[in-house]
Write a structure and sequence with these properties.
By secondary structure, the protein is mainly beta. It has 1 helix and 5 strands; from the N terminus they run E-E-E-H-E-E. The strands form 2 sheets. The chain has a 3-stranded antiparallel sheet with strand order 1-5-4, covered by helices on one side. Strands 2-3 form a two-stranded antiparallel ribbon. Strand 2 and strand 3 form a beta hairpin.
Length: 128
């Protein structure tokens, strides 16, 4: 008996490092005896979105490892792992506000590019 499992590839998170104030673990007594935490600056990763073309390869590797481990626990042996590739493209059409059929200058036709990315993987396993 064979079993097929699909593991999705997620796109990589995008973000920046931002400087934030965090407590240092120390406290300082004020003039009137109240305690105030001492703050220090720390750089932290802040996620701002998700890429539309870069696959999160470390996450995909962990997800594949988990799927393979689950199949092995169920008594299956991996036969093959096949990538599923998808593609996307961008294009632009510009005519500077003019129609191009009356010999108007300044226009352009569909300059663009295409690219592919791993959408996920299909794991085929056989029961041992």
């Amino acid at each position: 008996m064979n079993k097929t499992v699909y593991v999705i590839a997620h796109f990589a998170p995008l973000g920046t490092y931002q400087t934030v104030q965090v407590p240092s673990g120390e406290v300082k007594k004020s003039f009137f005896g109240s305690e105030k935490p001492v703050m220090q600056e720390e750089k932290q990763w802040v996620e701002t979105g998700t890429s539309d073309c870069i696959v999160d390869a470390p996450r995909l590797a962990k997800d594949i490892d988990q799927a393979v481990s689950n199949l092995n626990k169920e008594g299956f042996e991996i036969v093959t792992i096949m990538p599923v590739t998808s593609g996307s493209y961008k294009y632009a059409y510009a005519a500077n506000g003019h129609r191009l059929d009356n010999h108007c200058a300044g226009g352009g036709y569909g300059y663009g590019y295409g690219y592919s990315y791993t959408e996920g993987v299909v794991i085929i396993a056989r029961q041992v």
